[in-house]
Amino acid sequence: MVEGRIPDSCDEYIHAEDDAMSVPQVSSEDLKQATAVHLENIQRNIERRLQVARTQGDQVLIHLLEAEREQVMADRPPIDQLFAEFNLPT
Fold this sequence. Notes:
Layout: H1 10-20, H2 28-56, H3 59-75, H4 79-85
């Protein structure tokens, strides 16, 4: 595609974009590690918010955050299972 020219079709546009940038390849181990760190950060954030709510004596917020913490922990499948659900290599 000539720069500055409007593509004639979506297909031409897509291929022009493919040439312009590519998605970096990430190893499954790196992805697993990033997923684990992300989930740990979510848990740490909830714990920090719970601590503040307790300090302030906000019983409603404490109840909501405890429920959120339980849901996150209960819904957290093993990382290999998570990868399988999205057809990612383990």
